[in-house]
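User: For my dataset I need records formatted as: sequence, then structure tokens, nothing else. Please produce one.
Assistant:
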Amino acid sequence: MSEETRIEFDFKKLGKYLSEVYGAEVQLRFIGEMGKEKEAVEKLGKSMKGFGYGKPYLIEFDVEGKRNAVVLETMRSNIFGHEFAYDRAQSLLMAHSLFDRLPRHSRSIDVGVFMKDGSLVSVGNYKEFFILMEKLEGQEYYRDLERIRDEKRLAELDMLRCKALSDYLVEIHSVKKDSPELYRRRIRELLGHGECIMGLIDSYPPNLDFTDEKELESIERKCVSWRWKLKRKTNRLCQVHGDFHPWNILFRNGTDLSVLDRSRGEWGEPADDLAAMTINYLFFSLQAYGSLDGPFKILYEKFLYNYIERTGDRELLSVIQPYYAWRALVVASPIWYPNLSHNLRRKLFNFINNVLESERFDPDKLDLYLR
């Protein structure tokens, strides 16, 4: 088995962990796979090599003169949304939160994590998780787009930054991965994840003046059809950012940039990142001109055509449609952008419908998609 499915079970570290959980010194007595003959700890030596992920282990120990028996279990990696350690952490945290709430259900004593050195750390008394990150200097890219919108002109640096962003995607998307199951998962999540198409649609309040439930249902149905078109294109799986928009990009001097808040996993469809950025050139242009025009048309074409020329990925134009639908649902949202005009939102919904009905996206017809 690979390192991902094996770990050395160190009894001393296990005993230390259990002592911390129970608040008293623990004496280990037996440990072994459930359903197999128990072996005394003394016979096993200091550790049990080849502990297998996904298998339940019976542990018996004495604490304060009382014999206790517990089951320690991890999850095995699988294609049902548990490919990565963070997927499995979510499931185990949920189990710890819910097991005790159902009558007659086995009680969860703790949830913990194996560290790289084989030690076990308790996180069962959690309230909320956090992440600690380094602070990066720089200004968010959306401020550049606001300036361009208000001044209606481009500086030379704007063109250089646009190309730098396109080149960045060329660079990260060059790292490919052969995993058909993971590509299909990402396409499935594009529809069903709470932050993606269906989640966005469900967040739209009722009785809106620019769309209705019938149109939203129609969009959702079209996106399901697109899932069946895209899920076969598994060769396209590559390294992605996952939320590559102007609020997640910092520029310092010139084209020196950093990115923030990578989302939805390490691998995905490259069209995701392209749509996330270019929808914003359209969005800001609609605010300034009511169409894709002026500086934003130049930036849009520069970004997209530079990427296609450098990657040779013309198939992009046959897969980007549902990603544009998702991102347009974001920028048209009355929750995320409450102050947009009816006319602007309506154009975004025209864009969604027309793009989803186009087998091949044509950048030169973008204004037609808005009608």
